[in-house]
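Task 17 of the worksheet. Students: predict the tertiary structure of the chain below and write it out as structure tokens. Keep your answer in the requested format; marks are given for formatting as well as content.
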Amino acid sequence: MALDTQQPDMPAASASPPPYNASWESGEPGPAAPWSGEPAPEKANPSPGWRPVLREIVETVVLTLVIFLLVRTVIQNFRVEGMSMEPNFHDGQFLLINKLAYRLGEPARGDVIVFRYPLDPSRDFIKRVIGLPGETVEIRNGQVLINNQPISDPATVNNANYNMAPVTLGPEEMFVLGDNRPNSSDSHSWGTLPTDHVIGKVVLSYWPPSDWGLIRHGMADPGFHPAGD
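Model answer:
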């Protein structure tokens, strides 16, 4: 008997799609797609747009304004006008002022300060502190006396020979004079300076370059006379 070597018929491949699986719509994984051997196409990241750039610009501008305001709170520049502080400060010289100097400390005799002119607060003056609150100031033939004691005034080269009757300063007053005494509008002519008119203490000269440097302050106390005077 001959053996039957014929294989049973195999079902033909179906070209129809797989049956509907409700789990695909429910979010559960369905049957995996056959791998084609090619990498999946890369998705392009969306452009960040103009909003992040605008935000950086705004943050930079705000930070710049904050720094500017902080600096202006502490430091201010000032241009000398006139000859009232010759020979130590000159017309057209540019200075930097520490506006916090007297909020953190007390004024001292010999300090060079900028203040609002008491008779016209729209104008700024530069002078040297001579008398402090509570002291009595007098001028005899150009010699300054504090509490009836003469002071040594090495900062002043251009001396004057005028007189001024004794003036006792209040707790919120100072007495200021220009270094060029014969040509200075100061306390000897218009009166005492209210301390709340002070803008700040001069700390640095930055223009012209020949005058660049820190400002020297200070003056001998009443009754002190250097050797040889």
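Marker's comment: The mean pLDDT is 79. The radius of gyration is 42 Å.
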